[in-house]
Predict the 3D structure of the following.
Amino acid sequence: MADSDTRAGERHATVPILDYVNRVHAAHDAGLARAFEVPDGIPAIQVSPSDGKLLELLLRLAGAAKVVEVGTLVGYSAVHLARALAPGGHLWSIEFDPHHAEVARGNLAAAGFADRVTVLVGAGRDVLPTLESHAPFDAVFIDADKVNYHHYGKWAIDHLRRGGLVLGDNAYLFGELLHDTDRGHAMRSFHELVAASCDSVCATTPEGLVIGIKR
Ligand code: SAH
Ligand code: DHB
Ligand code: MG
């Protein structure tokens, strides 16, 4: 396999180009615009508009109805995921910080998804087992504490239907994927677990997005 530096081509994703393609392909309606605004005191670490739209399209392609998210923040990615749900579907989104969860519930209600999304407060490792009666799931989106990605990925593989999607944001670990740290090891274990149990790719979004279809 060719090394990544043997392929010709430069990076062309300038800020004006990204602004243009976000506007053309991933324009915000009122619900997305509200959820994209992060209040003072909460970090603005939501997915980008194009990455949110990508999640939405992937869920639609999979016909996803039952979806789990780990890491709600204030609900921007959750609005994208909720927009994609098949009729009768539901999103369970887990958030450790009660203030983030409260803001997210307001945003999801304003976007019209109060009855299709449940925001659960707690640590992913504690809350995920409480969702098992709803399994198997059609998609799991992982975007919370990086040191637990392998744990979340294992849970996802164990509770997804065949053909279901496991998705993981920040898969380059902010440039630290190859570091000899706890979260470096956890993120590499996540990559390798998904590759072993799914047809997978790490999409080269700015942050890296793992996409796996469970075998
Ligand atoms: N998915 C969101 C962004 C999530 S940011 C979006 O794109 O809109 C990561 C979130 O994970 C933060 O809100 C943080 O409070 C939460 N988090 C951190 N550790 C967590 C844990 N152990 N369990 C659940 N959520 C956690
Ligand atoms: C951080 C977390 C994220 O999920 C993200 O997409 C960007 C940054 C962070 O913890 O800094
Ligand atoms: Mg993220």
In short: The two ends are 24 Å apart (CA to CA). The chain has a mean pLDDT of 96. The longest strand covers residues 160-168.
